[in-house]
Every structure is written in structure tokens, then in C-alpha cells.
Amino acid sequence: MARKWKRARLGILIAFLLLVIAGFWSQYHPQANLPRTPPIPLPVPEGRPQSHSTTFSLPEEQLSEKGKWIDGKTTGIDWTSVAVASGLAYGTESGRGKGDKSYDDSVALLTGAWGTDQTVEARVYSVNSSERVFEEVELRLRSSLSAHSSTGYEVLFRCLRTPKAYASIVRWDGPLGKFTYLAQKYGLQCGVGDGDVVKAVVVGNLITGYVNGVPVLSATDATFSNGNPGIGFWMQRPSGLRARLTSVKANNTDYGFTSLAAWD
Questions:
Q1: Is residue 77 a part of any domain in this protein?
Q2: Cβ 163 vs Cβ 187: under 8 Å
Q3: Is 72 helix (H, G, I), strand (E, B) or coil?
Q4: Would 199 be classed as within a structural domain?
């Protein structure tokens, strides 16, 4: 009996060590989390004055696609870049900032002159989601970037499929850390997972967020009447004693977008 117990303990120890090794490999080799299947393009309706569709096929440290995007770090300075690898657009924020510096979202806006009414939709990639880590995918509307200033509207969704999921509509008011919540909802219907399609639409003063074609929240605001569409990401990792006691490891490449379409 004692011999069987020793074998069982050895098996448990080996399984635990394998989990630890896998966790460290995933943390320090984030490429292990990148998508393995070809991205599915999102269509753009015909006859739109301005539009853009992409599956993020060019690997880039700062999303550009040959000058079609404005980078949050280069232009905004206080925010971070959206990067691309293996067909995944993902954030580069540390997730460890404090105070206003915790809001250094990764941001990228499309260039060009866009109309007032705008639509952005994107397909979500998400693995290893956890209630202990906050991972948000963001769609931007009527937005702008300049040195130390980011304005416009953001529709965000937490990458989580539990009752603790949420979606929000936020107005960015300029300086880092200065923003206003216009709407927020919690629940399973607001969270997103791998393969879901999220969409943000602004028509006049009405802003609406969708998950897989179903509207989940809306708000009205008249602060910004023009600007450009775009995307963003935000993460908050476990910290302090909580981080030491959990085996959850957060990687920037655990979530992002694999395709996008925007039009006015």
C-alpha cells in the first residue's frame, strides 16, 4: 500500500512539474500562444466612401500596413503600440502600471479622412482567459492621437465567458488616464471568446456595441463629431501576493484580433 502511495505522489509531482514548465514556456515564449489556423476575413459593404479590411498578415512591432495606421506609442507617446505576429494583432502594454500609467492601452488608428458615421468590427482571438486577469479588446470610433493626447470613443469587451465578463463604452478625453464611462454592462452576454466577432457603430450621437451581431449596450454622446476608427487592447495582470499565489500567467499574445473591417 505504501509503495502505491509513493507512486501516486510521484505521479502528482511529475504532473505538477510539467504544468509549471508549460507555464514558464508559455510566459517566456509567447509565440506558443499565437493562432494556428488561417484567419477568416471580414467583409466590407459595397459602395462605402472609406473602408479598410485586413487579416494582419504582415509581422510588425508597430502596426502600420505600409502607412495605413497611426501608432499609439510613436504619435501619442504615453500609450503603447499594437504589434502583429502570425496573423494576430495584439497589445504590448505591460499590464503592471499604477495610477494613470495603468491606462497605457495599446492603440492604433487608421489614417485618412473618415466620415462622421463609422463602423468597426473585428474577430477575437482568446486563449487561457481567467477571471484573475483583465484582458480587453477595444474598437475605436471618431478617435485622434497626438502627443500626450488621445480622444474619441471606445467600445470594449472583456475576453472572458463567465458572469464576470463586461462591455463598456468609454469616451477618451485627452491626457493619459482621463476618460469617461458612458455605458457599462456585466454578464455572459457581454464577454467574448475565441472566434467571436465584436462590432462598434456610431451614427449621429448614438454609439452601439455588438457581439456576434447582437447589440449588447449603447450610449449617446455629442462630444466628438469626427475622427478615425481603430483598435486597442488593455491588460491588468495579477500583482503582489495575489500574483505569487496564482499559477495564472498573462501574456499579451493570449488575446487580440485576427481580422478587421472598418467603413464609414
A1: yes
A2: yes
A3: helix
A4: yes
pLDDT in tens, 165-215: 999 999 999 999 999 999 999 999 999 999 999 999 999 999 999 999 999
- Whether 14 is covered by a domain: the verdict is no
Distance CA 139, CA 198 (A): 8
**pTM for this one?**
0.86
Size (the chain), residues: 264
Give the number of domains in the chain: 1
Q: Is 80:72 a contact under the CB 8 Å cutoff?
A: yes
Distance CA 72, CA 61 (A): 12
**Weakest mean pLDDT among 62-71, 170-179, 205-214, 235-244:** 235-244
Residue 7 lies in a domain: no
Q: What is the DSSP string of 130-182?
A: -TTSEEEEEEEEEEEEETTEEEEEEEEEEB--STT-EEEEEEEEESTT-EEEE
- What Cα–Cα distance (Å) separates residue 104 from each residue in 88, 91, 101, 190? 20, 10, 6, 23
Provide the domain limits for residue 165: 34-263
